[in-house]
Amino acid sequence: MKPFKEFTIQFVGLKIGEHYFDYEISNKFFESFEYDEFNDVNIKADVKLTKKTTLLELDFSINGFVNVNCDLTNEPYNQPIENEFSLVVKFGEEYNDENDEILVIPHGEYQVNVAQYIYELIVLSVPSKRIHPGVNDGTLESDILKKLDELSPKIKEEKTEEEDIDPRWNKLKNLLTDK
Questions:
Q1: Which of 40, 81, 141, 158 has the greatest count of CB atoms below 10 A from its CB?
Q2: 165 in a domain, yes or no?
């Protein structure tokens, strides 16, 4: 992965308080990560940096869509994406990103790159099972759906009680009533 200059936030010259950064995410962003699960991407990522005297707070917010293939029909569709994430950046002796919500950077650092966090937020926002909305509401016409319906096991209709009982048991019932 090559470094993303436009995703590097230099916080040294910023005043204490809130600062806003907006990013437009497209396929090119994911190509840099060598991630090819999406056909098309149109996401707006907003980052709010709150600078305090001893730490930084980063609030990520994404909104948009990714075009993916349906897991059932392989038909492409736009999957809406919306998610938020908060990260606290502290200063310490050495770099440490073991905690998901806290990033520790060395005291001499003057910038932080947010590309990896935006990437992970988008990828984790996509549902693990991707189903075309037309499959759920029945509006999607597809040969694959017809074949799946044809091959699916059919539910047997409920039989009446007399049909379920073996005739030999009926003879045994007569023994109880013939006394």
A1: 81
A2: no
The total number of structural domains in the chain stands at 1
Cα separation values, 149 from 22, 123, 133, 145, 154, Å: 45, 31, 17, 6, 9
Tens-binned pLDDT, residue by residue, of the chain (179 aa): 455 789 999 998 889 999 999 999 999 999 989 988 999 999 999 999 999 999 999 999 999 999 999 888 888 889 999 999 999 999 998 988 888 889 999 988 999 999 999 999 999 999 988 888 877 776 666 766 667 677 677 766 555 555 567 777 777 777 777 65
Determine, yes or no, domain membership for 20: yes
In a domain, 167, yes or no: no
38: burial class by Cβ within 10 Å (0-12, 13-18, 19+)?
A: buried
Regarding pTM above 0.85, the answer is no
Structural domain containing residue 36:
5-147
Name the CA dihedral angle for 69, 74, 78, 80, rounded to a multiple of 10 degrees: -70
